[in-house]
Amino acid sequence: MQKKLERIGAEDLQDIVAEIPAQARQAKLARPFFKIDSYQEFHGDTAIVFQAMATIYFFYLDPSLNLCQMRKYRYKPTAGMWDRYEVKLIHFPSKFSGIQVE
């Protein structure tokens, strides 16, 4: 599941970068990246509907803008896939204040 989440994160990052309007491309990072912030698996009855949950932060804009995208995912065992259920453009969380960007 976690490897599948990493692939989805990479695919989502490509989609995010591709959707940046042409007039805003100068604000794009040279090397956009993502960080899996939280990852939790569930077992037993708790895992019947959702087997795992995760939060990924996507860094793709110039750090001076202080913006990143947060996406939340949950793994549906019946479908065998990750479901994205929340997407927000937010200011950098303080826990990422020392993050190195290129």
Short description:
Helices cover 17% and strands 44% of the residues. By secondary structure, the protein is of the alpha+beta class. The chain has one domain (2-95).
Total beta strand runs: 4
Strands ordered across the widest β-sheet: 1-2-3-4
Taking the sheet with the most strands, its summary is: 4 strands, antiparallel
How much of the sequence lies in strands comes to 35-45%
Distance between the termini: 29 Å
**Quaternary class:** single chain
| Structural shape | elongated
Task: Please state the structural category.
Answer: alpha+beta
Total of helices: 1
| SSE topology string | HEEEE
> How many domains, as an integer?
1
pLDDT < 50 runs, ≥5 residues:
none
List the helices and strands and how they pair.
Blueprint: H1 2-18, E1 28-41, E2 52-61, E3 67-76, E4 81-91
Antiparallel strand pairs: 1-2, 2-3, 3-4
Could you please describe the fold and organization of this structure?
The chain is of the alpha+beta class. The protein has one domain. It contains 1 helix and 4 strands, in the order αββββ. Strands 1-2-3-4 form a 4-stranded antiparallel sheet, with helices on one face. The chain starts with a helix and ends in an 11-residue tail after the last strand. The mean pLDDT is 91.
Keywords:
alpha+beta, 44% strand, 17% helix, 102 residues, 4-stranded antiparallel sheet
